[in-house]
Amino acid sequence: MDLNKKFTPETWPEHPERATLEGKNKFVGFWLFLGGETILFATLFATYMALKNKGPSGFGFSTQELYQLPLVFVMTLLLLTSSLTSVYAMHHMKNYNFKKMQLWLAITAILGLCFLGLEVYEFNHYVHEGFTFGNSAFSSSFFTLVGTHGFHVAVGLVWITLLIFRNAKRGLNLYNASKYYTFSLYWHFIDVVWVFIFTVVYLMGVIG
Amino acid sequence: MSSVAQKRGFGAALWDWMTTVDHKKIGILYLIGGGFFFVVGGIEAMIIRLQLLKPNNDLVSAGLFNDLITMHGTTMIFLAAMPILFGFMNYIMPLQIGARDVAFPFINSLGFWMFFLGGVFLNVSWFFGQVPDAGWTSYASLSLASPGHGIDFYAIGLQIAGGGTLMGGINFLVTIINMRAPGMTYMRMPLFTWTTFVASAMILFAFPPLTVGLFFLTFDRMFDANFFDHQMGGNTIIWEHIFWIFGHPEVYILILPAFGIFSEIFSIFSRKRLFGYPAMVFATVLIGFLGFMVWAHHMFTVGLGPTANAIFAVATMAIAVPTGVKIFNWLLTIWGGSISVTTPMLYALGFIPSFVMGGVTGVMQGAAPLDYQLHDSYFIVAHFHYVIVGGVVLAILAGVHLYWPKMFGTMLSETLGKITFVFFFVGFHCTFLIQHWLGFWGMPRRVWTYMDGQGWNTANMISSFGALLMAIGVIVLVINIIMTTVKNVRVGNDPWGDGRTLEWAIPSPPPFYNFTQTPLVRGLDTVWIEKQEGNATGLTFAEPVTDIHMPHGSIIPFFMSVGLFIAGFGAMFHQETSWGLPLLIFGLAWTFVAMAMRSLKDDLGYHVTKEEIQRDVNNASKGGQN
Fold first, then answer.
1. Model confidence, pTM
2. Which chain B residues are closer than 8 Å to A166 by Cβ?
3. Integer Cα distance of A1 and B543 in angstroms
4. pLDDT of residue B601
C-alpha cells in the first residue's frame, strides 16, 4: 500500500475503509469484537439487575432516592449528539474531505469529554453521600456496569485524540481510513450501550 | 525457509522467535508452551494419584492436595489443552484455506504472549507458596474464604491468558471469513477449518463472561467489592452461573477442534471423502449453538427448581444427537475405505469407543434426578476425563503424530508412536474406567484421602497404576521426538502419501510465505481431486508468481504482555503494601505506551519479490524432490 498515493474525491473508493485486505479484516474483526463486547455488557447488566438495591441489613440506598434524572438526561443528550457528529465525520471521510472529518471528530471528542466529566461528577457525588464501591452489592454492580461504560468512553477519547493528531499532517489515505471507521463503529457501540444503561439503570430505577 | 542451514547465534534465534508474527512459528510456540504446561499438569496429576494410591496416605498434606487438584484442572484446561489446539489451528488452518497468514499477525503474537505470561503468572504462585486451592471452578463461597494470594493468582493469571484466547478466536474467525483462496467456498472447507471456525465463534461469546466473572472475583478479593458476599447483599450463585456460561461452551471449544483433527485423519487414512460432509458441518454448528444452552446442568443440585432443571436436562440430552451424527459419519467414512492403520489412525480408532463412553455417562448425568446421586462423586471425575482425555488429549496426540512431518519436515517413528498409543490408551482406561464404580461406591471427588475398609482400596490402586502407564506413554513420545529430531530424515510435501487438503501440497515445513502462488480450489479435498486427475503437484494456481506482501516482526506484543504481568502483581499487593498501586498503574501504563507505539508507527510490511520466490522454487526442485 502506498501512503503517498494521492486521491481526489472522484478517485476515492466508495468504501475506503474496506478498500484493502487489511481494512476488510479490521472491518470484520471489529464487528466481531463488538459482538464479544455485547456479551460482556450483557453479563454486567444481568449482574446489576440481580443485585439492584441489595445491601447489608439496614442498607439505606435505593435507586429511587439515589439517581438524578436531570443530570442523566443531559449526559444522554451529549452522548447521543456525539454519535450524530461522528456520523457527519464518516460522511466527510467517504467524500474525501479530510478537514471537515477532523473537525467533526474533534467535536465528537469534546462532547464525549463533557459526558465523561459529568459522569465523574456523578460518581463523586455518590461517593460523598456514602455510596462507595465497597458499600454494598448494589454499589459494586452499579459502579462496575456504569464504570465499565465510562472506561470505554475514556478509551475512545484517547483513541480518537491520537488518531486526530497522528494524521493531522498526513491527510486521509487507505491505511488510516479503516482506523477512523472502526473508531466510529466503537463510538456508536458505546452509544447503544448507554441507551440501555439509561433505560435499565436510570429510567427503570427511578420510575419502574 | 531455505533448506540451507544458517549458523546463527542463540540470541538472534531467540529474538527471531520473540518477535515473530508468522502464524507457523506462533503455532509452534503455542505447542511448546502448551506442551510445557501439559507436563506440569501431568506431574500434578501423578502426585494426586500417588496420594490416593492407598488409604490414609499422607504423601501430601490436605492443603497441598487442594492446591494440586486446582492447579491440575486449571493448567490442563487453560494452559495445556487450549494452547496446544491453538497451535494446530494456527499452523494448519491458514494452510488449509490457502492463506499466507492469519488476518492479524500482530494480534496473533500478542495472543500467544498473553497466554504464556498469564500461565507463568498462575504458576508463579507455587514459588510464593500461596496456590489457588478452590478447585478449577473456584466457586465464590470457597474462593472468597481462601486466605493468602492463591485465588488472586487464579483470577489475574486467567484474566491475562483469557484475553489472549479471545484475541486468537477473533483472529481465526476473520481469517476464515476474509482470506480463503479463490474457490474455497464455505462448503469446501476441510472439517478442521470448520471446527476451528465454530470453536472460535464460541470463544468470542464464551470468554467475555469469564472476563467479567474474573473481574468480579478480583474486585471482591482485592478492591472491596461485594458481588458474591451475601452479608453485603451479594449472591454467590452469580459466580456459578457466569462461570458455567463460560465453562460449558469451553468444553465444546476444546472438543470441536479435536473432532476436526479426527475427521481429517479418518478421511486421509481411509482414502475416502469424509462421509456426510454437509451433515458433519451442520452437526458442528449445532453443537456450537446448543453448547450455550446447557450450562445449568452443572448446577442441578444448587436448587434452581424443577422447571429449570428439566429444561436444561432436555437441552443437554439434545446435544447427543449431533454428536451421534458425527460418530456415525466417522464410522461410515471408515466403512469400505482402503484403511491404513498408522499411529494417527490408531488414535482415531481408539477415540470412537472412548469418547462414546464419555458421551453416554454425560447423558446419564444430564438426567437431573440421577445427577443428584452422581453429583460430586468419582463418577463425575471419570466422566469428564473420558471426554477430555478420551476426546481432546487423544486428538492432540494424534495431531502431533499427523502434523509433525508438516511442521518439522521429519517423520516421528511409527513404531514408537504405536508403543506410545498402547501405553497411553491402556493406561487411560485403567485409570478412569474404575473411577465410575468408585463413584457408585460412594467415593466423593476432591477428597485428600480415604479410610480403610470401605472397599475403595483396590480400585484406587488400579487407577493409580493406570496413571503410571499414561506417564510411560508420554515419556516414550518425548523419546520419539528427541530421536526423530536427532536423526532428522527429511520428508517431502505429502509424507503420509494420501493428503487431501492444501497443506499436503506444499513443502514440509512450508516456506514462510506458505504458497508461492495462491492456489485455486476446485472442490472439497482439492489436492485429492488434482491428484486423481493426474496433477502430481496437487495444486492449480489462481495467479502468476507475483510479489508477496508480508508483515514485519515486532517485539511490542511481548512488551504489552509483560506490562499486564507487572500490573497483575501490583493489583495483588496493593492492599498490604504502598508500592502495589503505583506498580499497577506503572504496568498498565507500560502496556498502553507499547500499544500507542504500535499505533503511531506505520507498519506497512514488506514485499517478497518475484525473483526471490522464483529462486526458492528453483532451489527446491534442484535440491531434489524426495
1. 0.95
2. 599-600
3. 19
4. 83
